[in-house]
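Appendix C: a fully annotated inverse folding record. The material below is reproduced so that readers can follow the format used throughout the book. The structure is listed first as tokens, followed by the designed sequence.
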């Protein structure tokens, strides 16, 4: 990949570079190619971008008041215009941003550019890669790659000098302002709040009662799972994947469509021919990417990783965690066609899951030993997976897997929205935490205040 041109898309959140994007940039630097870092951000980010030029990269800032408030559709449109000007051989992106967690922009960008898409690169060795799903290959031109947090961005040499940052605005890109910013964004956040979804009444017990509590809960019958029915319903909703009950909960007529082995163009044509207005997609990796690509073709507003829906005055309200899992947001789509990917629970073989949080990351060995005693599956929070202490395949949360065991035991997990939204299907939740004010206790049936 020497002498090849690589564009790395960057996002800054609260003045900090998204760590997934930092990993993508480091991987690009290791190829020996010509690297251009492109960030769509306010002028205040210019100094951070300038520091990156000391690494030998070219830096381009996409900044204009007209870009403010862009959702994923508008963002991918603006990035598409910029990347076409740069004409790179490869595009590297972080898997997702830490605030949005949607992972929508890379597939949308690939669709706009007519590029292939390879997601969740987990290993890089020269010009070869391996993804989180086990796909192996060589980097090829005309492809958008997304990266897990597999590298830490290097520091510049003390002998390096900073270059200039190019600033491109709407006029530079010849942007259609009707497709930029809030005006060009088909989705709107109408409300953010602390979600009550998944809240439970917590009974506090001692650590000595833990073994008997597990035994008692194991002998209970499984609870019947049922999707919450919306008081008002849409006339019709199409759906792809194993989410029929969700579609039926929001629409009088739920229509399954088969998206398997079909191109985004074919799917878009079929949906438009059938007059689809609302389309729900199961959030498997394949369907999430398809949803984003089809949304570009149809102009649909797309809300990712929804945890609940309701219909008000004929309008679908889509709810998902936001701002890195700190709050929950209600979102609507103003477009004629509306898409949503739906967070679904994974059916596991184990009745019990023991999950390791940041608060006990140094006690993984002991918790694993305890899990083996009960035949429990060992999982973890996002912070533990990000630290490299446990694999991403074991992560529970918005950006990991959703689970529904008989018993879920959270060890040292604080209880951010992005985690608790993924355990609502558990029959019983036990939280073990030394902080009596930890949020996790509001989402647990039983609490144990103790050092793990």
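Designed amino acids, in order:
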């Amino acid at each position: 990949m020497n002498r090849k041109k690589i564009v790395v898309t960057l996002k800054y959140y609260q003045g900090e570079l998204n760590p997934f994007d930092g990993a993508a940039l480091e991987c690009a630097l290791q190829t020996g190619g010509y690297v251009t870092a492109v960030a769509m951000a306010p002028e205040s980010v210019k100094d951070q971008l300038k520091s990156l030029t000391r690494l030998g990269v070219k830096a381009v800032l996409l900044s204009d008041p007209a870009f403010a408030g862009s959702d994923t559709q508008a963002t991918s449109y603006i990035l598409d215009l910029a990347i076409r000007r740069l004409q790179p051989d490869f595009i590297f992106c972080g898997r997702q941003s830490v605030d949005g967690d949607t992972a929508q922009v890379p597939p949308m960008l690939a669709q706009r550019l007519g590029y292939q898409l390879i997601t969740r690169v987990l290993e890089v060795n020269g010009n070869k890669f391996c993804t989180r799903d086990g796909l192996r290959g060589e980097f090829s031109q005309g492809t958008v790659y997304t990266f897990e947090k597999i590298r830490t961005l290097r520091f510049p040499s003390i002998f390096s000098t900073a270059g200039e940052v190019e600033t491109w605005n709407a006029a530079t890109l010849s942007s259609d302002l009707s497709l930029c910013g809030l005006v060009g964004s088909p989705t709107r956040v109408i409300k953010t709040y602390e979600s009550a979804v998944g809240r439970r009444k917590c009974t506090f017990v001692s650590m000595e009662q833990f073994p008997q509590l597990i035994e008692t809960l194991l002998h209970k019958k499984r609870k019947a799972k049922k999707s919450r029915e919306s008081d008002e319903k849409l006339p019709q909703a199409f759906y792809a994947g194993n989410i029929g009950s969700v579609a039926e909960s929001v629409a009088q007529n739920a229509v399954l469509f088969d998206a398997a082995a079909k191109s985004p163009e074919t799917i878009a044509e079929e949906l438009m021919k059938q007059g689809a207005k609302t389309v729900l997609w199961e959030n498997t990796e394949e369907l999430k990417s398809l949803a984003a690509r089809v949304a570009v073709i149809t102009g649909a507003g797309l809300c990712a990783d929804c945890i609940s829906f309701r219909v008000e005055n004929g309008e679908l309200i889509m709810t998902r965690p936001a701002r890195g899992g700190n709050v929950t947001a209600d979102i609507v789509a103003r477009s004629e066609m509306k898409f949503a990917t739906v967070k679904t629970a994974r059916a596991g073989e184990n009745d019990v899951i023991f999950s390791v949080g940041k608060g006990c990351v140094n006690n993984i060995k002991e918790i694993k030993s305890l899990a083996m005693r009960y035949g429990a599956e060992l999982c973890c929070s996002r912070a533990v997976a990000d630290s490299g202490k446990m694999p991403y395949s074991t992560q529970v949360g918005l950006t990991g897997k959703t689970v529904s065991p008989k018993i879920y035991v959270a060890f040292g997990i604080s209880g951010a929205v992005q985690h608790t939204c993924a355990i609502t299907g558990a029959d019983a939740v036990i939280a073990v935490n030394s902080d009596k004010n930890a949020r996790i206790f509001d989402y647990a049936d039983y609490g144990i205040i103790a050092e793990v």
